Amino acid sequence: MTKTAPSDTLPPKPKPVIIELSAIPEKFLEKGVKASQGGSVGCLYPYIETKKLLDGSNVFYPRVIGERDPNNPEDWRWGFNWKEKHNGVWKGKSIGSISPGAVPMIRLMQQQGATKEDIIAFIKKAKTKKTSPKLDVCKNFDNTKLKPVLPDDAPIAVVLFAGGGGIEAGMVQAGIRPVIAVEFDPNKPDLSRAIAKTHHRNFSEYGCRVVQLTVQEVAQSRFLGFPRRPDYLHASPVCANFSQAHTAKAGKGIETADDLTAAIAIAEAIRQLQPRVFTLENVPRYQNSQSFAIILDALESLGYHVTYSVVNMADFGLPQARRRLVLIASKGFHVALSLGTAPCGWYEAIAHLIPTMPDSHLLPKQQQALEKFLAGNAPTPLLIERVGGRTQSKYKPGHLPCNTILRSHFTDHKGCNRSKFADIWLPDGTVKSLSIQGAARLQGFPDWYEFPNETATAGSIIGYSVPPSFATQLFMSAQSILKGAKV
């Protein structure tokens, strides 16, 4: 799958007027891009822009801290070229300045054998598409203070591995009624019960019943008491063994018997319930597992149309870089994730909350990160992690999405609360401690969602959850198709 993690790009510090602009393609025409009839099917290529300044120095765009990652679309400008025959002569044509967020879809279209005309049409649409106000997550955080009221005939959904209800929060924002949520982790029974209690507090008014059993246990009863043919069935199986942080000697997660039995239970749920739409979310490595293959086999054997890819949720308005595998399956009609929205920086999302956050001070390593940044950049708000930062930058400027929010940020290795997990440094020297409310906003939670007071439980809900703002976009895309489908 395409890697879509965003780079640590930064706007250049103001310098003399730019007098030259050039694009330098790294690749132009690749081998094997011509169809069997001799016509070009086109080529997607990365390039960088060089701006020459009055002092003679060159600046390269996109700006990147450290080495430019060849597998990161955000580290490059993008273009698409092809050849057309005019009066017997082949002439090259190209389109530049393609959004990095459109690159995974273009690559998928190429893999699926789409014609160059279809790809060009998609690129032109992506370049001209205007964001729907309803899906402009970053601009509409303040519109989520009131809890949605759903009609009696709202579509219904069943959720497996529900956690605290991030996916359900996104569902109700999209007009969908969650009716059953299965949530229990035998490895963390106390935490799991606390999370289930929070879930009940937030979604009981919609008639949602929390089943505090494992999905495997529910599958043994053949999902007795669950609605057949629900509009939606969602699963976010436990991802710990497939996460980047949980690796074996070869750098790969260890797939366990629990992972496999969970996948078998999900496959059984699909067979028993026959949902109109099935969705799944997990970490990117899950796509290479035997567990994922079991679920795919079940969907394909039942005649579902399946689409899946790794997406960066920052490309859908979330003020957080969060790469996840997202699968959408439907029977009798086709559902696909809509195009993303404009990126949103973390500062824009929580600026109004910062004055209410408690004062803090930087740890020595945070201070080092700050000094490193200021050595080459103008002062700007920075979100600086107190933990983590081993595999990615410890700080994020305000115009960029923040790093992926994890449960481990809020608890130590013993599961105890961390009183502080990240700090906000402002150009006037003020330092604030990121609050749970601020972290929830960065995870796309609506204001009406009620968190428990305990940091470990609230942080676990935030870290475990599918970002509700992304889930809303996912299900609004499905809703627009589902309403007109006769199944």
Automatic annotation (TrEMBL):
One Gene Ontology term from the biological process aspect of the record: methylation
Active site: 239
Cross-referenced PROSITE patterns: SAM_MT_C5 (PS51679)
Single GO term (MF): DNA (cytosine-5-)-methyltransferase activity
EC number: 2.1.1.37
Keywords: Methyltransferase, Restriction system, S-adenosyl-L-methionine, Transferase
Family: Belongs to the class I-like SAM-binding methyltransferase superfamily. C5-methyltransferase family.
PANTHER family noted in UniProt: CYTOSINE-SPECIFIC METHYLTRANSFERASE, DNA (CYTOSINE-5)-METHYLTRANSFERASE 1
Stated name of the protein: DNA (cytosine-5-)-methyltransferase
Native source species: Nostoc favosum CHAB5714
Taxon lineage: Bacteria, Bacillati, Cyanobacteriota, Cyanophyceae, Nostocales
